[in-house]
Automatic annotation (TrEMBL):
Pfam short name (any one): MdoG
Annotated transmembrane regions: none
Residues annotated as domain Glucan biosynthesis periplasmic MdoG C-terminal: 35-502
Functional pathway: Glycan metabolism; osmoregulated periplasmic glucan (OPG) biosynthesis
Xref: Gene3D superfamilies: 2.70.98.10, Immunoglobulins
Repeat keyword on record: no
Upper classification of the organism: Bacteria, Pseudomonadati, Pseudomonadota, Alphaproteobacteria, Hyphomicrobiales
Keyword terms of this UniProt record: Periplasm, Signal
Gene: mdoG_2
Organism from which the protein derives: Methylobacterium cerastii
UniProt-recorded name of the protein: Glucans biosynthesis protein G
Statement: the UniProt record of this protein carries the keyword NADP: no
Length: 504
């Protein structure tokens, strides 16, 4: 499975503005139709009551489907042709052409003065790098759109967000480069029945005000349709999205993913096995951070496994979780092209009580840095009944570091290598924080299951405000072990809880 291999799932919408065809239910609003908060939920509700119609892509000429990555990337909206260019609203919209693996059709609409205004396709809108765009007999729509925004204290517009491919989207804060992807809805990932990829059918974008942009997205898949309301705000330390998602279930859904996010992880300091690469590391997120319902702070390094791995962190009403990039220096990666140190972390905070479920982490073997092979999401314990309507609310922080209340010390390094004898493995785990050097001694709380700890000790480096824990795992004949480590003082944790799954 390759989460980045999207060619099979990036499909067209099957809906079009105006009168509905037989397979198109419902019709999208026509020009000047009224728009309010109920418009997209009503569309999604009607869509869910109709049989699912697989999106069509046969309207896209072969010349566009056959474009290489470079050829497709050369097709860009001309700056002067961007929506709101010259209006000084702090945002512009650049519709994205269909082509290459992005064969799906997304209908774009503006919402102005309470009315809908469709964004019509116009080939003159695009620079093509010399490629001759084909003629279309009807409006082909777009594959998505790019947002440019003015960040605080910034005089010019910069890349801010991209909505393209299935129901994926991504944002950046000031000074960051695009990296991690978010999902509007996740259904059956790494499931034996096969994953289901909901797609954007239509997006309605309100005229921005007060430094924020509001959009409404209609999504659809075989099992459910959905309506999203999103408020996007560009920022310096973090850009945020406030999301309200209502799911209209056609079928019973027993594997639902909320707040899905995916990142690439090829190799890092602790797992250079089989790596012949001049760089120090290559990944857009180094670990999964969780603040569970009990308030415990957890750090789980991610890695590139030999076989598919699924980890579930059972919880009730989580306070937050996210795929985080903590390596922030050039020396961490030594990559002059990708600059992984500029990639955003993505931290999610539920706005409602999410009851029982599990933060779920999927790690997929990958041989390419372009494969987004790490996926995290919240999986509710309770199934979604067919015919039901369910609403979830949450906030995303596309950030340099999580805004959640930090523990006195966080995990800042994980390394492993051959141990002193036999099958033993040596681990070096670094914790950094001023609280480590307060009065009172530190104790190591360390456990392995299965397996045993052969030895353990820690080294203190006050000048770096860091304590390193060194220990050896003796797995015996076991081929996997779950490790858990924290530093405690007077029985209370003073660090994040480090979790790790070792496999032979």
């Amino acid at each position: 499975m390759r989460l980045a291999a999207l060619g099979a799932v990036l499909a067209g919408t099957g809906l079009r503005a105006g009168p509905a065809a037989a397979a198109d239910a419902p019709a999208l609003p026509a020009a000047s139709a009224p728009f309010d908060a109920a418009t997209v939920p009503d569309l999604a509700r009607a869509l869910a009551k109709a049989p699912y119609a697989a999106p069509r892509t046969d309207d896209l000429p072969a010349s566009l489907k056959g474009l290489s990555r470079e050829q497709y990337g050369a097709i860009r909206t001309k700056p002067a042709a961007a929506i709101w260019a010259g209006d000084d609203l702090g945002f512009t919209i650049e519709p994205l052409h269909r082509g290459a693996i992005f064969t799906g059709r997304v209908a774009l609409f503006l919402v102005e003065d309470g009315q809908v205004r469709p964004v019509a396709y116009d080939p003159a809108r695009f620079d093509t790098g010399g490629f001759a765009l084909p003629e279309f007999s009807e409006d082909p729509g777009f594959s998505g759109f790019r947002l440019r925004a003015r960040f605080p204290d910034g005089p010019d517009l910069s890349d801010f967000a991209v909505f393209q491919g299935a129901s994926f989207f991504r944002l950046v804060a000031k000074g960051q480069g695009f990296g991690i992807n978010a999902r509007a809805l996740t259904l059956r990932p790494a499931d034996a029945r096969g994953e289901e990829f909901p797609v954007f059918r239509a997006v309605f974008i309100e005229r921005p005000a007060d430094g924020a942009l509001v959009l409404h997205a209609l999504i659809d898949s075989d099992s459910a349709s959905g309506a999203l309301r999103m408020v996007l705000r560009p920022g310096t330390e973090a850009s945020t999205t406030e999301i309200e998602t209502t799911i209209f279930a056609r079928k019973a859904i027993d594997h639902l993913g909320l707040g899905g996010m995916q990142a690439s992880y090829l190799f890092g300091p602790e797992d250079r096995r089989r790596v012949d690469d001049a760089r120090a590391a290559a990944f857009s997120a180094g670990g999964l951070q969780i603040r569970n319902g009990a308030g415990e702070a957890i750090w789980r390094p991610v890695h590139n496994p030999d076989a598919l791995q699924i980890s579930s962190f059972v919880d009730q009403n989580p306070k937050g979780f996210g795929l985080m990039q903590r390596a922030r220096t050039y020396e961490d990666f030594e990559d002059d092209v990708q600059h992984w140190e500029w990639r955003p972390s993505l931290w999610l905070e539920p706005a409602d009580a999410w009851a029982d479920g599990a933060v779920t982490l999927i790690e997929i073997p990958s041989d390419s840095e372009f494969n987004e092979n790490v996926l995290a999401y919240w999986r509710p314990k309770e199934a979604v009944a067919a015919g039901s309507e369910t609403t979830f609310r949450y906030r995303q922080h596309w950030c340099w570091q999580a805004p959640a209340a930090a523990p006195p010390a966080s995990v800042t390094g994980t390394r492993s290598g051959r141990g002193s004898a036999g099958t033993r493995r040596l681990f070096l785990v670094d914790f950094t924080g001023d609280g480590l050097f307060a009065e009172g001694g530190l104790d190591i709380a360390l456990a392995a299951s299965p397996g045993s700890i052969a030895r353990q000790q820690f080294f203190s480096y006050p000048e770096r405000r860091t304590v390193r824990v060194a220990f050896e795992l003796d797995p015996g004949s076991e081929r996997a072990s779950e490790l858990r480590l924290a530093l405690v003082r007077a029985g209370r944790p003073v660090t994040e809880t480090w979790l790790y799954r070792w496999t032979s």
